[in-house]
Design goal:
Structural class of chain A: alpha/beta
Number of helices of chain B: 18
CATH topology of the domain at 415-562 in chain B: Beta-Lactamase
Number of helices of chain A: 5
Shape of chain B: elongated
CATH architecture of the domain at 415-562 in chain B: 2-Layer Sandwich
Helix content of chain A: 40-55%
Strand content of chain B: 15-25%
Number of strands of chain A: 5
Largest sheet of chain A: 5 strands, parallel
Radius of gyration of chain A: 13 Å
Oligomer: heterodimer
CATH superfamily of the domain at 415-562 in chain B: GAF domain
CATH topology of chain A: Rossmann fold
Strand order of the largest sheet of chain B: 8-7-6-11-10-9
Chain lengths: 121, 837
């Protein structure tokens, strides 16, 4: 099960990566929206952590692309920018909306839940 | 009595009375002479009748005497007497045959009914009829009387009861029969019918159709028997008996009594008749001739009718003539009388104008001439008087005009005072009513219609000259003085432009309208009303602006004629009024504009403030948004690293505690940011129907213990069954918490917080009242500003956030505060659809 972290703040991405590794998951990291889109196109991710405010391509654009191309990965919005409406993101296909700073244990619970479901399938 | 009536009366008396008199006299004369002629005719008829009866009886007597002298019965009398019981015996038959031959001569001379022979015992021994006779051998009644009467000569009787009905008017003549020696041997009877002679007597032409003759005789001392046939009675003989002395048949009663006479009597029918009566001495009878008065006087009746028609026609023509003549005489006299009266009253120009050639005509001409002369002498005096009164009138008018002018000038001066237009108009109508003694005076001004489609009576007019055509130019009654002082009447407070006299004056069809005959002038609307109020005159003037546009009407009604001088003064004053109105309206408009301007400026200020406020908020929101993004990432890094470090198992207790503190503080920072964000862009979050009292009380329950420690008591005054409010409960509780904290902070030495919930205009009000320090004006002004605080440790965001939350729920926050007494914070939220049970 592959996890992708789309995050322009390298430190934030690093924390997530460390925590997921601690949980036993391997995660890719995309530093901007364009790279994230390339990765999503080329690889099949089970879970995608998506920041909204990213250079080159925003999280919203990536959501739209995924919706248009019917990419079924679980998307967890992780944003520090309060200008985005959570409802709007959910309507574009996001599965979870979390605001920074976020408790890592909460992320662990969500990832456990999604991977369990995938395994069951 | 007028001369005309007198003449007619005289004519009538002089002509009708003699005509009637002559007519009546003539009528009675004619009637009398006719009566006389009829009576004389009747006398002749009676005389002739008696003569004829006498002659008839004389003839019968001579027959009797001849029979008595005959020998024939002397020779056969004894045979007949002896064998009469056996009529068929040869001796009897022979004897009868011999007598029959002798008697045949008499039968030829006069047609007797029969001839009889009786013996001395009164037995009938012979009847001249051929064949057997049942009467034979019978004895007659009253034989002795008969013989006794016959001794004195031939005796006529009618008592032949045994006679047949064939001859009802059969009479019997008896004579003695003598023997050879002249002794009486029996009786001879001659029986004859008098019907023929009675009929002949009745056929006299003088008796006319109704007349007749009657014969009668006494049959006892008080009874009379009619012998002749009666024209109007079918009974005959013994049935026709009347009592002597009865009122009927007086003429025959008198005749029977031996009287001769004639006159008007009543006959046996009870009818009035003219009659003549005579006794028939040879028979001892009475005889009367009579004729019905109706028939006798028929010519008189005709004459009377003719006379009546003639008199009526005569009287009619006399009346007609009298009328014509009386008129021809009375008219000129009457004309003369009237003319004299008119001249007498002073009209010397009057001409009587009777031109006839008679005395009246001459008198009339004399009168005319006299009037002419009189006129010449009086004209000069009259002219002088006229000039004097004219000069007086002009003088008075000049004085009045001056007086009006003075008063009007005074009024104009008074109108310069700076008072409202309505008051000025009232001053004008009051002044005009007083100065010109008007019954009432009014002013209308043209303004847009304000009652159209509401209660305006003129809206009901759908057609005709009074149709309201100009709704933007309606005449509003602005002032009224005199009889009517109200200006809000339904009918007259608004007049359509161009309609009625006021509307027409306003429209300038007649920019001025003055009449001194309001009760008849067709231009005035209600004559009856004007008559009832004794109004005489009306004057209306158009009020024109300097631009010559109509702006209204000034009008008045008065009980005296409006003189030309008054009219001129009023006309010029209407110009002044128009000027004042225009001026005042301009002032009014200016004032109105000023007020409007002031309002607009205030409005502008307010919207500017709001704009500034909202811009402030918007920029703040953006700033906060930016900042929060910049802070959230570092917070994430800090807390994330702290968490990752905590996962290491080699940590000592101190480090672990420090890391946990880092995490907690990060969480606090996150909360602060969230709050700031909420203020900058408050979102409703998840709303649900909430019982506001319960929701508020939940917060109170959390803080109450803490508050009591600080010496603050919380009083609850919640309403029962509050309607639900659709709200984000968490946000509401945040507001409540904030407000309670503020209240507590306002009471450093303790106090009371009273929470009241109530309904107000579709909103639910939650009031937080404290007994704290209150707020100064400056504080009140800035209380909602973000970052404004009076507290040493406050962020200045609490109330701003509250404001944001309540606004997002379409509610309001209001403050009432007094320094050193306390503050009331009212939170108003719109209620939901149904009460929350």
């Amino acid at each position: 099960m592959k996890i992708l972290i789309c995050e322009d703040e390298a430190e934030v991405a690093e924390i997530l990566k460390k925590y997921l590794k601690y949980k036993g998951f391997d995660a890719d990291h995309a530093i901007n929206g364009r790279i994230a889109l390339e990765l999503i196109k080329s690889r099949d991710y089970g879970i995608i952590f998506l920041d909204i405010n990213m250079p080159e391509l925003t999280g919203i654009e990536i959501l739209k692309y995924m919706k248009e191309n019917r990419i079924k990965s679980k998307v967890i919005i992780l944003t520090g920018y309060p200008g985005v409406d959570s409802d709007f993101c959910i309507s574009l296909g996001a599965d979870k909306y979390l605001e920074k700073p976020v408790n890592l244990e909460l992320i662990g619970e969500i990832v456990d839940k999604y991977t369990l479901k995938t395994k069951e399938k | 009595m007028r001369i005309y009536n007198k003449l007619i009366s005289t004519f009538l008396i002089l002509s009708v009375v003699p005509t009637l008199f002559i007519g009546i006299i003539g009528f009675y004369n004619a009637k009398n002479s006719l009566t006389k002629a009829i009576i004389s005719n009747l006398n002749n008829v009676a005389d002739e009748g008696v003569k004829e009866l006498d002659a008839f009886i004389g003839a019968r007597k001579s027959d009797m005497m001849m029979l008595q002298r005959q020998n024939v019965y002397r020779m056969t009398f004894s045979v007949l007497d002896q064998f009469s019981s056996d009529q068929l015996s040869r001796y009897y038959l022979e004897a009868k045959k011999a007598i029959d031959a002798q008697l045949a001569v008499f039968q030829i001379a006069y047609k007797y009914v029969d001839i009889r022979l009786l013996d001395k015992t009164g037995r009938i021994i012979y009847v001249s009829k051929p064949g057997l006779d049942p009467e034979l051998n019978k004895y007659i009644k009253g034989k002795d009387d008969l013989f006794r009467m016959a001794e004195s000569g031939a005796y006529i009787c009618d008592a032949c009861e045994d006679l047949s009905k064939e001859h009802p008017f059969t009479f019997c003549m008896a004579g003695l029969a003598y023997g050879k020696a002249g002794e009486v041997i029996g009786l001879i009877q001659l029986r004859f019918d008098m019907k023929e002679i009675f009929d002949r007597l009745n056929s006299n032409p003088h008796l006319g159709k109704s007349g007749e003759t009657v014969c009668a005789r006494k049959i006892s001392d008080n009874e009379i028997l009619f012998l002749s046939p009666l024209k109007y009675k079918e009974a005959i003989g013994a049935e026709n008996v009347i009592n002597l002395g009865s009122k009927r048949s007086l003429s025959i009663q008198r005749a029977v009594s031996g009287e001769i006479g004639s006159g008007r009597t009543i006959d046996y029918r009870g009818k009035t008749v003219l009659s003549a009566w005579r006794p028939v001495k040879s028979l001892g009878w009475g005889f009367a001739a009579k004729i019905d008065e109706g028939e006798a006087f028929a010519p008189i009746d005709k004459l009377r009718n003719l006379l009546a028609v003639t008199i009526m026609m005569t009287v009619f023509s006399i009346i007609l003539t009298a009328l014509i003549i009386a008129k021809s005489i009375a008219d000129p006299i009457d004309k003369l009388r009237r003319g004299a009266k008119i001249i007498g009253l002073g009209n010397l120009d009057h001409k009587i104008g009777v031109t006839s050639n008679d005395e009246v005509g001459q008198l009339s001409q004399a009168f005319d001439a006299m009037a002419q002369n009189l006129k010449k002498t009086t004209t000069s005096i009259f002219d002088l008087n006229k000039e004097i009164s004219e000069r007086k009138r002009v003088e008075i008018e000049r004085e009045n005009t001056l007086k009006w002018q003075r008063e009007v000038n005074a009024l104009q001066q008074a109108l310069l005072a700076p008072v409202a237009l309505e008051k000025k108009l009232k001053m004008i109508t009051d002044g005009i009513t007083r100065i010109f003694d008007a019954d009432f005076c009014r002013i209308w001004l043209i303004q847009p219609g304000d009652r159209c489609g509401q209660d305006c009576v003129h809206a009901g007019v759908k057609d005709g000259p009074h149709l309201c055509r100009y709704k933007d130019r309606c005449l509003h009654l602005m002032a009224s003085s005199g009889r009517y002082t109200h200006i809000d009447g339904r009918e007259h407070s608004r007049v359509p432009f161009g309609s009625y006299k006021i509307g027409r004056i306003a429209a300038g069809e007649e920019h001025k309208f003055v009449t001194n005959d309001v009760t008849n002038d067709p231009r005035v609307h209600n004559h009856k009303w004007a008559r009832e109020l004794d109004l005489v005159s009306f004057a209306g003037y158009q009020l024109r602006a300097q631009s010559q546009d109509p702006i209204g009407v000034l009008a008045l009604f008065a009980k005296h004629p409006i003189l030309s001088a008054e009219d001129a003064t009023l006309d010029s004053f209407s110009t002044t009024t128009a000027f004042i109105v225009q001026q005042a309206m301009a002032n009014n408009n200016l004032l109105k504009k000023a007020v409007e301007l002031a309002r607009s400026i205030e409005e502008l200020k307010r919207s500017q403030n709001m704009l500034i406020q909202s811009e402030k908020m918007a920029s703040l929101g953006k700033l906060v948004s930016e900042i929060s993004h910049e802070i959230n990432n570092p917070l994430m890094i800090i807390s994330g690293n702290a968490q990752l470090s905590l996962m290491s198992e080699k940590l000592n207790a101190d480090t672990k505690k420090t890391l946990e503190l880092i995490m907690k503080e990060c969480q606090r920072a996150k909360d602060i940011i969230r709050r700031v964000l909420r203020f900058a862009k408050p979102s409703k979050g998840e709303t649900k129907d909430v019982n506001i009292c319960q929701s508020v009380d939940a917060v109170v329950g959390i803080v109450e213990k803490q508050f009591i420690t600080a010496g603050v008591e919380i009083k609850r005054k919640y309403m029962k069954d509050p309607p639900f409010v659709s709200i984000d409960e968490q946000q509401l509780q945040e507001v409540v918490m904030n407000l309670l904290n503020n209240a507590r902070d306002a009471m450093p030495d303790g106090g009371t917080i009273t929470i009241t919930t109530s309904l107000e205009d579709g909103h639910i009000r939650v009031a937080f009242k404290d007994s704290g320090t209150g707020m100064s004006e400056e504080v009140k002004q800035n209380i909602m500003e973000p970052f404004f605080t009076t507290k040493a440790e406050g962020t200045g965001l609490g109330l701003s956030i509250c404001y944001g939350i309540i606004k997002a729920h379409n509610g309001e926050i209001k403050f009432e505060s007094e320094l050193n007494k306390g503050t009331i914070v009212n939170v108003l939220l719109p209620v939901g659809k149904a009460p929350l049970k």
